[in-house]
Design brief:
With 525 residues, the protein is an alpha+beta fold. Helix content is 54%, strand content 13%. The protein is rod-shaped, with a radius of gyration of 42 Å.
Length: 525
């Protein structure tokens, strides 16, 4: 049998439920701009009606409802979109770092420009061309010295910048390892907190949002997979557990990340992009610039030495030693191989008049001028021979000598044969010391610039594509989980009207009870 006060209970339940719905709507509105927040909803259902089917049953027809109640407050979230977002986010993380690195490499190379390495190299060859017009001009020799210093300084600077970029990437890997460890610790702590809250029968919606946000950020740094278990999220990288329940099972350090990259388990994310940039991109361009410097100094050059030239005593070319009268070339010495700029410079004579062979033009920085080291040259250590730096007259430009009646040999200082040969190196192919390239120094540098341009363009394309995919998935995710203020305002009005109607219903029923209780049996008094 229905209680006299039954409808008061019905109204009370409605008031409590609509109040909860209004409070949840307010919580959604307050967090409309909170990163990682998922909108929440109150799950309402009709409460159990009076007199369910049983052996004892009232003769009153129908079931009388008892109002509304809510069984939970849940967040609106779709796991499939979360997994898709994290997969795309890790790809974006790797490509964005590679694009950034290649942009920095382009700034270091600075080509094409009027102030880049190519301009410095052109000025270097032009100074030799000018010297060939007047080999005895001291000013021209000083210009050769200064343009050579500019060339070696440019190579040294590029090498230093590449080294600094590599060190910067190395430092960032260490920073990221600390960031990863922080995220893993927070996820483990949130796992424990969520288990405690939900063991009481509640939904830890806001804590779950925080955990998902941490996981999203972690997915950009490294490739991870996420499994939701009763103990919380289990975070793995290629099958290796990083977080299980409330414990961080693996300590992530920079050494760990480098090992994982080498082993092939770290396959994506920002850290992957950093290590790949350091060990592949920057390292490759450092190697190519080192090879370019060594090729310029010591690469194989095929030249023709014109007839009438006089080689220094005991000069060895292509395994043949030239001494005595054999030093004086009666015909062109065609297609002989000399070892780069240094080898060619040592075939000639300088302005000091000595008939001894020229000295190495390029040496390793810091070597003894009396015993210069001209092998093992890199972009970082290439320098002008200290003797030439101190005295530009030691620049060799002549390939002619004369011998007087007494047998004294004198250099023809005004001869420009060697200076012309060196100036023509601008258009002469030089076989690199690693044997991989045979082109002019300018063409070899152009190949480096061209490769950089193609790689940078591809990285920009991949970054743009992955970023678009991330944004596309995020848009779909926000359409499900994001807070729409228009929708929340609509819900607010709906819940407000329901609350007001419930309150009005309670007031109306209160008046009925007042009439029943206080006015029944008073007729005729």
């Amino acid at each position: 049998m229905t209680s006299t006060f039954h409808s008061i209970e019905t109204a009370k339940r409605s008031l409590f439920t609509q109040t909860t719905a209004l409070s949840t709507t307010g919580h959604n509105v307050a967090n409309a701009n909170t990163e990682g927040y998922s909108r929440q909803k109150v799950n309402m259902q009709a409460s159990i009606p009076m007199e369910p089917f049983a052996f004892l049953h009232s003769t009153t027809p129908g079931q009388l409802g008892t109002g509304v109640e809510f069984d939970s407050i849940t967040r609106v979230r779709e796991k499939f979109l979360d997994d898709q977002y994290r997969n795309e986010n890790t790809n974006f993380g790797s490509w964005s770092i590679q694009r950034d690195t290649l942009e920095k490499l382009e700034a270091i190379v600075n080509e094409p420009s009027n102030t880049g390495f190519r301009t410095v190299m052109d000025n270097f060859y032009k100074s030799w061309s000018d010297l060939s017009k007047n080999p005895e001009d001291v000013t021209a020799r000083r210009i050769v010295k200064e343009t050579t210093l500019a060339l070696t300084d440019a190579m040294n600077q590029i090498s230093r910048q590449l080294g600094a970029l590599s060190e910067d990437l190395n430092s960032n890997i260490a920073v990221k390892s600390n960031e990863i460890q922080g995220y893993l610790g927070n996820i483990a702590n949130l796992n424990s907190a969520i288990v405690k809250v939900e063991s009481l029968g509640d939904n830890a919606n806001d804590l779950r949002d925080q955990r998902d946000l941490m996981t999203d950020k972690l997915s950009k740094i490294m490739n991870i997979s996420v499994t939701d278990s009763p103990q919380g999220y289990q975070i793995q990288m290629n099958g290796e557990a990083l977080v299980t329940g409330g414990a961080v099972t693996t300590e992530v350090t920079s050494d760990y990340l480098n090992t994982a990259y080498t082993a092939g388990t770290l396959t994506n994310g920002e850290v992957h992009g950093m290590i790949k940039s350091r060990d592949t991109l920057v390292s490759d361009y450092q190697k190519q610039m080192d090879e370019l410097a060594n090729t310029l100094a010591n690469g194989d050059i095929k030249i023709t030495i014109p007839a009438g030239s006089v080689l220094p005593e005991n000069t060895v070319i292509d395994g043949v030693t030239y001494s005595g009268d054999d030093r004086i070339l009666k015909t062109d010495l065609k297609d002989v191989i000399v070892k780069g700029f240094n080898g060619l410079h040592q075939l000639g004579y300088s302005l000091d008049g000595a008939s001894a062979a020229g000295i190495p033009f390029f040496t390793v920085t810091g070597t003894d001028p009396a015993n210069p080291v001209s092998t093992g040259i890199t972009a970082g250590n290439i320098s002008l021979n200290a003797e030439i730096l101190a005295d530009p007259n030691k620049i060799a430009s002549s390939l002619r000598t004369t011998t007087d009646a007494s047998g004294t040999e004198t250099v023809v200082k005004g001869n420009n044969t060697l200076a012309i040969l060196i100036a023509n190196l601008k258009d002469t192919s030089i076989k690199s010391t690693d044997g991989l390239r045979n082109a002019t120094i300018g063409a070899q540098f152009s190949a480096i610039v061209g490769q950089l341009g193609v790689q940078s363009q591809e990285a920009a394309r991949q970054t743009s594509n992955t970023e678009f995919l991330v944004q596309q998935v995020e848009t779909r995710r926000q359409s499900v989980s994001g807070v729409s203020l228009d929708e929340e305002m609509s819900n607010m009005i709906k819940f407000q009207h329901a609350y007001n109607a419930s309150a009005r219903f309670m007031t109306t029923y209160d008046e009925l009870l007042d009439k029943l209780i206080n006015s029944t049996g008073t007729v005729g008094r």
